[in-house]
């Protein structure tokens, strides 16, 4: 028997387990590591046989970590992340300080980017990389240190800190607003509505807005978009009414590019959270970006 100094299972098997635990999917882990799902299963079974305990339970087609699996994943996720940081620093020769932040397309383009010059002015020696995606799966990439998420503050293995909540209200272009100047909230279902689909499940669409407002409606008219920013461009072009998220549309409203239509206004069900891996030590660059985002959110809350 080959002696192993650290008395650990095969590193290849541990890598396969970490990927399967992170995705909660053998298929996604296999795709990431360019092997078959069967190979991932064999690697995990080898670890389970060596430890003498199951790491996953498999109800139906899904997989769920056991308590032992959660404990092992927590340690591996932290260790692999720290190893990734060290390897990255060695590759860069420590000439640069990097931080990678992930956010949705809408939040990045309409809130984060206009505020980043303030960070660059203070920390010009720090390189900021952006992962801009509406798929939360991309937020799990190894290089991502900070994330800005919309939701309710509960994500596995992440520390979540509320930046701010939001309010939502209907918005349209100036010409559309003038044409429908007598419209009330109860008129909204009869107007051409601009729907945003295929993004975060917590994102409130017209169905939820009208239901929460207690406004009766049947089949809704309008156009459908997969990008919030494009829906707002359609609204500015007087094509219909979009659900406006105040934190994202405030500047456009102040500039007159968008106009609030009707007096409907609702608290958004969730909030915007700054999150980071609770098993990972943030780099100095990530700590500085986190502090500035905290400061900006506090200033805007008090403004």
TrEMBL record:
PROSITE patterns: HTH_LYSR (PS50931). Residues 9-66 form the HTH lysR-type domain. GO terms for molecular function: DNA-binding transcription factor activity; sequence-specific DNA binding. Keywords: DNA-binding, Transcription, Transcription regulation. The keyword Transcription applies. It holds the Pfam family LysR_substrate. GO terms for biological process: DNA-templated transcription. CDD domains: PBP2_GcdR_TrpI_HvrB_AmpR_like. Belongs to the LysR transcriptional regulatory family. This is LysR family transcriptional regulator.
């Amino acid at each position: 028997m080959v002696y192993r100094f650290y008395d650990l299972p095969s590193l290849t098997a541990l890598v396969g387990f970490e990927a399967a635990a992170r995705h909660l999917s053998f298929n996604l882990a296999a795709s990431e590591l360019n092997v078959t799902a069967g190979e991932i299963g064999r690697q995990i079974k080898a670890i389970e046989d060596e430890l003498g305990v199951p790491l996953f339970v498999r109800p139906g087609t899904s997989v769920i970590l056991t308590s032992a699996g959660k404990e092992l994943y927590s340690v591996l996720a932290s260790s692999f992340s720290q190893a990734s940081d060290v390897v990255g620093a060695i590759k860069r020769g420590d000439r640069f300080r990097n931080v990678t932040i992930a956010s949705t397309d809408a939040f990045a383009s309409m809130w984060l980017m206009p505020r980043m010059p303030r960070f660059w002015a203070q920390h010009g020696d720090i390189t900021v990389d952006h992962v801009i995606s509406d798929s939360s799966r991309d937020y799990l990439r190894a290089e991502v240190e900070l994330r800005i998420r919309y939701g309710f503050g509960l994500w596995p293995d992440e520390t979540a800190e509320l930046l701010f909540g939001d309010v939502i209200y209907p918005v349209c272009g100036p010409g559309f607003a003038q044409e429908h100047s007598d419209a009330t909230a109860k008129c909204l279902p009869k107007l051409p509505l601009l729907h945003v689909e295929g993004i975060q499940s917590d994102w409130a669409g017209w169905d939820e807005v009208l239901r929460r407002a207690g406004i009766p409606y049947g089949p809704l008219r309008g156009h459908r978009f997969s990008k919030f920013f494009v829906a707002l461009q359609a609204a500015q072009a007087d094509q219909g009414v979009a659900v406006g998220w105040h934190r994202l549309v405030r500047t456009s409203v102040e500039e007159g590019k968008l106009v609030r239509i009707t007096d409907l206004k609702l608290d958004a069900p969730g909030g915007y959270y700054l999150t980071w891996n609770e098993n990972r030590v943030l780099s100095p660059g990530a700590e500085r970006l986190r502090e500035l985002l905290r400061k900006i959110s506090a200033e805007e809350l008090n403004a």
